[in-house]
Amino acid sequence: MSDLPRRVHLHEEGPREGFQMEAGPIATADKVRLIEALAEAGLEDVQCVSFVDPTRVPGMADAEIVAQSIRRREGVRYTGLWLNLRGMQRAMRTPLDIEGAVRISASEAFSVRNNGKGTAALLDEQRATLTFCVEHGIPVTSGMVTTAFGCNLEGAISVATVVERVAQLLDVMAEFGLRLPVLRLADTVGWAHLNAIAAVVGAVPGKLMRAGTLERFRH
Q1: Which CATH architecture has domain 99-219?
Q2: What's the rounded Cα separation, in Å, for the pair 197 and 170?
């Protein structure tokens, strides 16, 4: 009997990641056309834009317009990425599907470069987000550790560091009486290899599921 999963979850981030990485500019209509084509192709979860500072990420300056322009296909979730509460509040003013999420980086240097905050300050940002989600009845559906397998700024990331970051996320969730439905370990900058994946994936679930604070694990 095969031990392969019966279903694979595809969370498409190509539009958001691709649009913001291109030197551009990319026409808003072309962005919308690609998002609609991906949904038409059968994808059920498409991350369309990121709500970030357009002076730092010019490719996302039209995030709200893109979100407003998508012709939605039934059964498809259209989401956006945000790095802080302000970005989440921007997303909530659009038709995109909103879910609460908490994030932290395994790499301190990447956290400072990408979020403008070190680990401690970023954890405080997650507390602010969770407070907002609880007050507004927004379900917190996932948590993510970025650079879980390595970082261009710091190099290899130890398994112990990844486990510590996950534990910190779960501790913050526990402060609000919440469990984390899904944990994602992100290979943010392309460092993952088979041995690193095996080591991290082998260490994280057993250590954290035993506490009853983690329901599902994705990588």
Answers
A1: Alpha-Beta Barrel (3.20)
A2: 21
Tens digits of per-residue pLDDT, 92-117? 999 999 989 999 999 999 999 988 99
| CA–CA dist 201, 60 (Å, integer) | 33
> pTM (2 decimals)?
0.83
Instruction: Give the pLDDT mean for 122-137.
Output: 95
Count Cα atoms within 13 angstroms, Cβ side, for 105.
Answer: 26
Q: Do the beta carbons of residue 18 and residue 26 sit within 8 Å?
A: no
Provide CB contacts within 8 A for 25, sequence distance 6+.
58, 59
Task: Give residues with Cβ within 8 angstroms of 98, minimum separation 6.
Answer: 79, 88, 91, 92, 138
- Per-residue exposure over 29-41, b if at least 16 CB sit within 10 Å of its own CB, e if not: eebbebbbebbee
CA 162 – CA 52 distance, rounded (Å): 25
Helices 85-92 and 119-136 cross at an angle (nearest 10°) of 30
* Residues 52-76 as b or e (16 or more Cβ within 10 Å = b): beeeeeebbebbbebbebbeebeeb
Please name the amino acid found at residue 72.
Answer: R
Query: How is residue 159 written in tokens?
Result: 């398994």
- Span 151-162, pLDDT tens digits: 999 999 999 999
Residue 46, SS3 per DSSP: strand
The amino acid at 133:
C
